[in-house]
Amino acid sequence: MRVRLVGLGAIGAAYGSRMAAGAADFAVIAEADRAQRYREQPTWVNGVEQRFPLVLPQAAEPVELIVVAVKAAALRDAIELMHGWVGEGTVILSLLNGIDSEQILAEAFPEAFVPLALSVGIDAVREGRHIRYNSLGRIVFGAAGTPDEAQATSLTAVSKLFARVGIDDDLRTDMVHQLWWKFLINVGVNQVSAVLGAPYGAFQTEGAPARAAMLAAQAEVVAVAQAEGVMLTQADVESWLEVLSALGPDKFTSMAQDTLTGRDTEVDIFSGRVCELGRAHGIATPVNELLGQLLRAQPTLPPRRFGI
User: Fold this and answer.
1) Distance CA 235, CA 227 (A)
2) Range of the structural domain that residue 136 is part of
3) DSSP letters along the chain, please?
4) CA gap 295, 100 in Å, rounded
5) First to last CA, the chain
6) Are 82 and 104 in contact (CB under 8 A)?
7) Other beta carbons less than 10 A from residue 274's beta carbon
8) pLDDT value at position 303?
9) Would you state the pLDDT for residue 305?
10) What are the φ and ψ backbone dihedral angles of 207, each rounded to 5 degrees?
11) CA 70, CA 95: separation in Å to the nearest integer?
12) Which parts of the chain register pLDDT below 50?
C-alpha cells in the first residue's frame, strides 16, 4: 500500500515515525520551501532523529492512502497539496479535530473514499521539531454509513497496515457517534487546558477545578449532540475519563501547546461550533461562550512556555 502523509506536527510525526519504519512505500507530501526546512531541521520523535522521505506536489501520482494530520486552519492548503495524489478509491484518513473535515475533504475529492476517523489517547507534545509522547493512543475509523464491498476491502487493508507498523486501531461501525465523542473530548479538555496552560494532570483528580470546568463544557456538547440526533450520554463522558486517567500527567493537549507557544488555536471548530449549534437549536451554551472569548483573547497576550 502506497501511503502519503500531510502534516508533521505532533500527531503527524508521531504516527509518521511508525509508518516510515513499517510501510513499504511511505512519504510526506510537502511544498518545496517546507521540504527544505524539514531537510535542514529534521524531526525528532522520542529522541530519535527521523529523516522522513519527502515528495513534492509536482511528483504526484494516485496512491492508496493519504493520512491528513494538519490543523483545521491548514486544511485548505493541505487539499491543494493533495491534488494529483488522489485517484478513484483513494482512502483519505483525516486525523483533524472537529466534526467537519471529512465532509470538506469528500467535497474536494468526490472520487476518493473518506471514512470518518479520529485519534484518541495520544499525548504527543511538540517543541520546535522535537516530539515526545508516552502514549500513541489509537486511531478509530470506519465508514459513515454502510460501506460497499470496495470500501470494506479498503478499510480492512488500512487496519492491516496499522497493525503491521505498530499503530493500534479500532475499525468501527458507529463512527458518527465516535466522531462526536472525540468532539466532546476536545471541547472540554483542549479548551480548558489552553485557557489554564495546564497539563493532563490538572484534570485527572476527581473534584479538581479544571476537571469541573471541562465537564461543564462537555455537558453542553451532549446537549447539542442530542439535538443533532447523536445520542451522547453520561456513559460517553465516563469513557473519556477512563482514557484521561491513562495519559501522561505532564503532557499537554495540542491546544494548550498552541497557546503556550503563541500559535493560533482551533477555537472556532470547538466552542465556535458548539455555540453555533446551540443557537440553531435554542440551547444555551454559556461555558463555551466564555471559553471562546478567553481563547480569542490569547493572541493579544505574551506567549507562555512549557518544558518537555
Assistant:
1) 17
2) 2-171
3) -EEEEE--SHHHHHHHHHHHHH-SEEEEE--HHHHHHHHHS-EEETTEEE---EE-GGG----SEEEE---GGGHHHHHHHHTTT--TT-EEEE--SSS-HHHHHHHH-TTSB--EEEEEEE--EEETTEEE-S-EEEEEEE-SS---HHHHHHHHHHHHHHHHHT--EEE-S-HHHHHHHHHHHIIIIIHHHHHHT--GGGGSSTT-HHHHHHHHHHHHHHHHHHHTT----HHHHHHHHHHHHTS-TT---HHHHHHHTT----GGGTHHHHHHHHHHHT---HHHHHHHHHHHHGGGSPPP----
4) 21
5) 34
6) no
7) 28
8) 65
9) 60
10) 90, -5
11) 8
12) 307-308
Per-residue pLDDT tens over the stretch 196-243: 999 999 999 999 999 999 999 999 999 999 999 999 999 999 999 999
Residue 160: how many CB atoms within 10 A of its CB?
A: 12
- Same domain? 89 vs 222: no
* Grid coordinates of 188: 472540554
**Residue 77, C-alpha cell as written in the block:** 492548503
List Cβ neighbours of 169 (8 Å cut-off, separation of 6 or more): 138, 139, 140, 141, 158, 159, 162, 163
Collect all residues with Cβ–Cβ distance below 8 Å to 202 and sequence separation of at least 6: 193, 196, 208, 210, 211
What CATH number did the domain enclosing 21 receive? 3.40.50.720
Q: Give the amino acid at 259.
A: T
Residue 308's pLDDT is what?
43
Assess whether 166 and 280 both reside in one domain.
no
Q: How many domains does the chain have?
A: 2
Q: Is the pTM of this model over 0.85?
A: yes
Clarify whether residues 293 and 197 are in a common domain.
Answer: yes
**Cell reading at 155:** 478499510
> Residue 33 corresponds to which amino acid?
D
